[in-house]
Write a structure and sequence with these properties.
alpha+beta; Immunoglobulin-like; 6-stranded antiparallel β-sheet; 20 strands; about 15% helix
Amino acid sequence: MFRKTTALFIAALFFLSAVAAAGSEAGVFGELIDSDCTDERLSALDQAAETISVSQTAGDATVEVCQAYYEGNRIFVSYRASGSVMVLDGLEMNDGAYADIIAGGEKDAGNGMIIGWKECIVPEDELAETQTFYLAYRAGDSGEKGLLQFTVKQHAYDQYLQGASQTGSYQAWAILYMGKVDLKGIVSIRSSEQAAGWIAWQEGEEGTGTDVIACWNLYRNGEFVSGDLFGASEVNGTEEVIFAVMFPFMEDLSGLTLVPEYSEAGEKTDEALVLEPADPE
C-alpha cells in the first residue's frame, strides 16, 4: 500500500511538473524579448496571445503565423519564415482594407529562419468581434506575393482611467485604456501658445519663446513608473495638442498620475494629471 501510494504521488508530481514546464515555454513573442527588436510589452503579449500555428509553403519558402492578439483597434502577430522569403509590412484584410504597421521587428533565428512580430492598427470601420487578417509575403526569385490567412477574436479593454486638470497656461484631460498588453490612450491640452509652439517646433524653427510639453511620464504615488513608449502627437487647429500615450502593462492602476515633461524645463510635477477609474461608457 505504501509503495503504491508513493508511486502514484511521484507520478502526479511528474505530471504536474511536465504541465508547468510546457506552460512556461515561450512563444515567438517571448523568444524576441532579448533581441534587437525587443519591446517592453512582449512578455505580456506572449501571455495574452492566442496560439495560431497556420503555415504556407511556396517553393523553398515557408511562412507561419505563430501567435496573434486582437485588442481594441490593434492586432499583434508573431511569425516564423524560412527560405527565400520577405514578410511585408502591415496586414491585409478583406475587400482591400489594410491594417498599417506601427511597431515590430525581426530576428535571425539561424538555419535560414527568421522570427518576427508586428503591431498594426485596424481601421475603425473594419473593427469586428471576429476578424480575418492576411500576413503578406514575397517568396522566391520571382518575388511572387503570398497571403497567409488567420482569424482571431477581438478582446475588449479591461479597465479605463480618466483625469482632468487646469493650470495657468492650459487645460488638460486624459482617457486611458488598460488591456492585457499595455496602458494606452490620449492626453489633450487646450492652449493656443502650446499649439503654436508645437507647430514651430515640428517645423524646426528656433527661438519661438515657447517651452512646449514634449511628452507625458507615468508616476505612481510620486514615484516614476515609465516614460511614454509611443510619443506620438498632433496639433488640432490652433488651440489643441493631442498626445497618443502608451505605457507597459501593469496590474495595479492605483495612485497613477501623468507628469508633463517640457522640452526645456523638463518635468513639472506640480502640473501632474491625476488618473482615476472611469466607466467604459
